[in-house]
Design a protein that fits this description.
Lysozyme-like, 6 helices, single chain
C-alpha cells in the first residue's frame, strides 16, 4: 500500500517538472522594459544644458524681407539733404500722407523728395530747411527709405524732439492702395526698427503726439485712420498690439516642448500589433481571406 502511494507521488512530481520545462521553452521571452520603435532627436534649440539656447521664431532679416524695403536716398547735398543733421533715434513717429492721388504710392513720394518737390515755408520757430522730409514711405507692396536712420527729418514738430530724435514713417493713402496691407507692412517695419535701435513700444507714437508751436491746431489728426476722434484711443492701441506681435516674433525665444519619453514595445502589445487588411465576406462571419472577416481587425 505504501509502495503504491509512493510511486504515485513520485510520478506526479515528475509529470509536473516535465510540464514546467516544456512550457518555459515554448513561451515567449519576457519583453524588454523599453524598446523604442522610433529614433528620438533632440532639438538644438531646446534650452537643455549643452544643447544651445532657444531662438526667436523669426530673425530680424526675415521680418525685413517681408517688408520689402527699398533704399532710395535723397542725394546728399541736394534739397532736403543740404544740411546733414546727425541723430540717434529714440522714437518712431507714424504718419499718413493724406495724398489720395491714384499715383501717390511710395515710389512717387520718393521721386518727389529726390526732386525737391515737397517745399515748405521756412521760418524761425517753424520749418528749419524749407522742405518736408521723412525716413520711410510705405504702401501695400513695399517700403522706400529716403534718409539714413542717423539723420534728422523734418516731419513732426519743427525744432522739437519729434524731428530731432524720431524716425518718420509715412503710410500711403492713394486710391487703389490697400490700407490694411499698408498698416500691416508698417507694423512689421516698426518692429524691425524698434529692435535695431532699442526703441520701446511706448516711444512709438502718432504724429498727434508732437505739438506744433504756432499752429492753430497744435496736435495734428495724423494718422487720422488710426486715431479715434482725432486722438489716440482703441485704434492706436490695436496698432501698437500688432507691432508688438511682430516685435515678439524676432525677440522672444520660442518655448520648446520636451520630447516624449520612449514607450515600451513588444509585438504582442495591442498598440503595436499590425492591422490586417480589411476584407468583405459575402457570407458573413469571419470567413474572409484574412481570417478577420467583415470586422477588419480584432
Amino acid at each position: 500500500m505504501f509502495h503504491f502511494s509512493c510511486n504515485c507521488w513520485l510520478g506526479r512530481l515528475l509529470v509536473a517538472i516535465l510540464a514546467a520545462v516544456l512550457f518555459s521553452c515554448s513561451a515567449d521571452p519576457e519583453p524588454p522594459m523599453y524598446y523604442p520603435i522610433y529614433s528620438q532627436s533632440v532639438n538644438v534649440n531646446s534650452g537643455q544644458p549643452g544643447m544651445g539656447s532657444a531662438r526667436p521664431a523669426m530673425s530680424s532679416n526675415q521680418l525685413l524681407g517681408q517688408v520689402n524695403l527699398n533704399r532710395d536716398y535723397i542725394p546728399y547735398g541736394r534739397h532736403a539733404r543740404k544740411y546733414r543733421r546727425r541723430m540717434t533715434p529714440r522714437y518712431i513717429t507714424i504718419h499718413s500722407t493724406q495724398n489720395y492721388s491714384a499715383t501717390a504710392d511710395a515710389w512717387q513720394h520718393s521721386k518727389a523728395l529726390k526732386n525737391g518737390k515737397l517745399r515748405a515755408y521756412k521760418r524761425r520757430g517753424g520749418n528749419r530747411i524749407g522742405y518736408l522730409v521723412w525716413h520711410y514711405t510705405i504702401d501695400q507692396s513695399r517700403a522706400v527709405q529716403h534718409l539714413p536712420d542717423n539723420e534728422q527729418g523734418e516731419h513732426a514738430d519743427f525744432d522739437g524732439p519729434g524731428n530731432n530724435y524720431s524716425l518718420g514713417l509715412e503710410m500711403c493713402e492713394n486710391r487703389g492702395n490697400s490700407r490694411a496691407a499698408t498698416v500691416e507692412r508698417t507694423a512689421k517695419l516698426t518692429a524691425y526698427l524698434m529692435k535695431r535701435h532699442g526703441i520701446p513700444i511706448r516711444n512709438v507714437v502718432p504724429h498727434y503726439h508732437w505739438p506744433r508751436a504756432g499752429s492753430s491746431k497744435p496736435n495734428k489728426n495724423c494718422p487720422h485712420f488710426l486715431l479715434d476722434n482725432g486722438r489716440p484711443g482703441a485704434k492706436w492701441r490695436a496698432f501698437q498690439t500688432k507691432v508688438m506681435g511682430y516685435y515678439n516674433l524676432i525677440t522672444r525665444p520660442v518655448a520648446i516642448q520636451p520630447a516624449p519619453a520612449p514607450q515600451p514595445y513588444h509585438p504582442t502589445y495591442p498598440q503595436y500589433r499590425q492591422q490586417p487588411p480589411y476584407t468583405t465576406n459575402p457570407y458573413g462571419g469571419n470567413g474572409g481571406p484574412s481570417g478577420y472577416g467583415t470586422r477588419g481587425y480584432y
